[in-house]
Amino acid sequence: MTGAAPGGQGCPRVRFAPSPTGFLHVGSARTALFNWLFARQSGGTFVLRIEDTDAERNREEWVTGIVDSLDWLGLVPDEGPYRQSERAARHQEAIDRLWDAGALYACDCTREEVERRTKGHAKPGYDGFCRERGLDRRGHALRFRVPDEGTTVVHDLVRGEVRFPHAAIEDFVVVKSNGQPLFVLANVVDDIDMAITHVIRGEDLLPSTPKALLLWAVLQGPDAPVPAFAHLPMLVNEKRQKLSKRRDPVAVEVYRDEGYLPEALVNYLALLGWSHPDGREIIELDEIVARFRLEDVNHSPAFFDVTKLHHVDAEYLRSMTPESFIERAGPWLAPPLAPWPAENFDPVAFARMAPLVQERVSVLGEVPGMVDFLFLDQPVIDERSWAEATKDAEAAVAVLGGVAAAFRECPWQADELHAVTSAVAESVGKKLGRAQAPVRVAVTGRSVGPPLFESLEVLGRERAIARLDAALARLGVA
Length: 478
Ligand code: GLU
Known about the structure:
Layout lengths: L12 E4 L9 H17 L2 E6 L9 H14 L5 E5 L4 H13 L3 E4 L3 H8 L22 E4 L6 E6 L3 E6 L7 E3 L7 H11 L4 E5 L6 H12 L7 E5 L2 E2 L15 H6 L4 H9 L14 H7 L10 E2 L2 H13 L3 H8 L17 H12 L8 H9 L7 H7 L3 H17 L4 H14 L4 H13 L7 H8 L1 H14 L4
Parallel strand pairs: 1-2, 2-3, 9-10, 11-12
Antiparallel strand pairs: 4-5, 5-8, 6-7
The protein binds glutamic acid.
The site of glutamic acid (GLU) has 7 residues, from loops.
């Protein structure tokens, strides 16, 4: 039986080993986070290794994208990024050693040939056809000779003991016919060289783990300690389907660009497979670091619930001081994220509105839409809201006209504006809530937003009245 007990004594060394085939997936970010948390709480080292050996599927900007996203999340590596592609010489040395030890054999079978031969076979995959053919290694794919007997046991910190009978593992390819090593080999060689003590990664990689252990035993000797493994549960969408690039918003960049806070995303990602012993869901990072235990990670699939993430983000925004909210909203208050010209922005006006906005947005990306009416020369009228608010055109004309007249006279304060609007509403026989709808759309362009009377106070008398007059003109009142 191969597969020694988990090693990992001394100072833990963990790695996050993404293949740069696009953006940073939220599932990968969760893997990076769990590695980082484990390193932080154990005084260990968090290594970033870019597994970029598949030249056709790798692009430099994707590496930058991953590094930037990790940086934005605050998951900064202690070592790296190392490039797997720069370690080709070490991979070749390992191939030589495996070959010399008789652990590999050359194979020239095509996929079609294997399929034809193995149709209906009980054992899946390759049938060992080339095992004893003694082909030269040059120009051929190299396969690992999996022992016929025995079982490889993975001691997984999340899933417990997982047994893989060798009879069910095919002689897997470790080197392609062009001499390029496959993922499983490069990954093991790098883990050995980087003295990785704990391999924490997605559950999709569990099937490759017995292969890794078989390679490990030949390269390091059957009794050498192997890393401890922790395979993290898959992330699924609301239909319990595995999160997919095509179907679901899975790129960390998407959340960054929508204005989620990195600390809220990190908090939410921590809950995907782990929970606080007290069941709390809004947890400061220090507390997560202190409480997180790999052993407590759950093995059932974790639902990546965007609605819940939204809620967590809103909680973070609400608990900020007004000053930090203003500071964090900064990038969203200037072009290109804000729709107004930079010179139109008035920080004093924004600071007055900020506490009202802070309570009403869930992500920072919603901030411009709450205050654009202040900084655009004219509000952009949402036509559907306008149509809805002016369905009863006669009442809308009466309210807008009455309010415009009253606003010319009254003191310019929210409570006064409220009082005169209520009086106008009463005079046209409408409840304030309904009566103020055309006023809100006329002034802000929308039917929802921060409280109307405070918004009017900050906007100022002249601009408010001009917008009410423009709305009356739209309704045909000169
Ligand atoms: N490079 C592999 C991947 O992105 C991960 C390898 C690992 O964590 O062991 O799927």
